[in-house]
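haha ok so turns out i had the wrong file open the whole time. this is the CORRECT one, sorry everyone. sequence first:
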Amino acid sequence: MTQTRTTRLDRGRGALGPALALVHTGRAPTRAVLTAELGVTRATAGAVAAELEALGLITVDSSPGAAVGSQGRPSHRLAVDPDGPVVLAAQVHADGFRAALVGLGGRIVATAPGCMTVDADPAQVLGEVVEAGAALLRETGRRCVGAGLAVPSAVAEPEGTALNPLHLSWKPGAPVRDLFTRCLAEAGVDGPRPGTPAAGHAANDVNLAALAEHRHGAGRGAQHLLVVGTGHRGVGGALVLDGRLHSGSSGLALEVGHLTVDPEGRPCHCGSRGCLDVETDPLALLEAAGRAPGPEVSLLEQARTLIQAEYARDPAVRSAVETLIGRLGLGLAGLVNILNPDRIVLGGLHRVLVETDGDLLRSVVADRSLWGRSGGVPVLACSLDHNSLVGAAELAWQPVLDDPLGTLGATA
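then structure:
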């Protein structure tokens, strides 16, 4: 590193993390945009970009082609390095688990085939999913800088315990973060510096889906983003406020699955009746359509396939979809009244519902909510296919985003 570059980098060292975050989320595609967003000189932005490139995190194209009709010299183009480091992301849900390697930019580099069984012992499950991820690391030869885990439960902070894994056979209070970290060490998964064990991070799956959608998907640009989704069983919610995930005082905020939408409805695990958790998940859809769930594929896949194949021609399926949309819309309207979001993104089966009849869902929300009547709240389908996995990766990437040089080490 030259003396001049060192001096410029010293002045812009505090900008390394913000600069990486801008490239990571696609908000700084060129050095000119990076300079403007950071509010630094062009020379400092160049030194910052060069250091991130030297760390193997981004690429800098110093001679991009000019766009047709443009004038002047085009700015250096910035992008995440496709061959850069990755993190190990894992997700456990009621119908199995999956492991993946995820690079910067939310790009999934490799995935292991999902397992369809979840043992009652969380240590056994986490050991298997970590080993699947470790095998991906061996196969690809990629450098790992961290690991994140998504689970279908509120995860208490700072303890890292799964408080209510209702749709798993795990006992409440399972120490998932500590177990995950231990399994990473046993599998030999390194952290940011070679030879040092990776620290495990863990959080609720819908919280992580919201984080991923806000940074890389349908929620990008929203200031107050509400995400609601149902994967394989149950319903979860999350809120991103001013760019930050709102998890409450101890990680337990937005347990929206236990809003009552049908007082005479199905008994819920929480002791109440007619909660979103049991009235708008895949099992509820199958039962409303008069279909018995089978063991061949996940409940989510069964419900999704049923709607896609039969909605247009089977009145029972169409009625079931309309019933779930009505219940979901009622729940969303209540959340709109309380939270006043500027955008709602729906995931899992709820994504299929809004894609199937978004007009009906939006009309229910508008009719039943004060803020909906005053102007309407955009209700969108999520745009990331594995947003909880991508969100789990965001957990592991966060230390690097906060301090790239301090986490990964200085370059020569």
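The two ends are 6 Å apart (CA to CA).
again sry for the mixup
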